[in-house]
Each structure stands twice: as C-alpha cells, then as structure tokens.
Amino acid sequence: MKEITRINHIGIRVKDMNVARHFYEQLGFKFIAGPLGPEPVAIMEHPSGININFILNANADCHENVLMDVPDKHTGYTHVALEVSSYEAALSEITTLGIEITGQVEFEGARFFFIRDPDKNVIEFHQPAND
Question: What is the reported pLDDT for 131?
C-alpha cells in the first residue's frame, strides 16, 4: 500500500504507568499526555520522533511475556528494534543505567543487543552494517 508513510506509534501494554514512564525516560523519551481515552493510554515521544503509547490495562498478576517466555510460540509482535548510530555508546549507556543486557548478536556486520522493560517487553538496539 503506497499510502503508508511511516510507523505512527508503538503500543505497549504495561502494568504501571509511572514505572514504565521512568524506564522509558531513561532511554530519552519524554512524557506527552495521559492517561487518556476509554482504554487508558499514556503517550511518550523520543526526540527522534518515535512515539510510544502505553496501554494501561495489563494484568498485574502476569509476570512473563507470553510471546517470549513460554514454550508455545504464540503469534504477535515480539520486540521493537531501535536503530542506533553507535552500538558501543548505546551499550555503554544502558550498562551505566544498570539495565540488564539479555542478548547480543552480530550478523553480517550488523550488531544488536536486547533488553527488557519492567513489563518484560523486548527492546532491540540495532546498528546496521556499514555499507
């Protein structure tokens, strides 16, 4: 479909808006608004233009990511990949923040590492291969 121009936002279901907000603020996102709407949503935006909507209705008793942490492989979005200009700088900053690195991969010159947010959502930091 040629009318699609970009991703408008990423929706992430979270248990606690304040916990999620603090985590994503560490990654440079700014709080815009919320909770809003019939299924409460809070909005954060990164200076790069990436917009996240927190869907504020996660089950407080859930302590795993059903797409990533159970043996059955359910369909659905498994992670978001954020492109970075410097793998080393991003890795250093995440480490300095005390956020656990859950995986690192190098593939055909591209390098990426993974973290989890407080609700177990997976975030990839991706530096493409140099052409």
Answer: 58
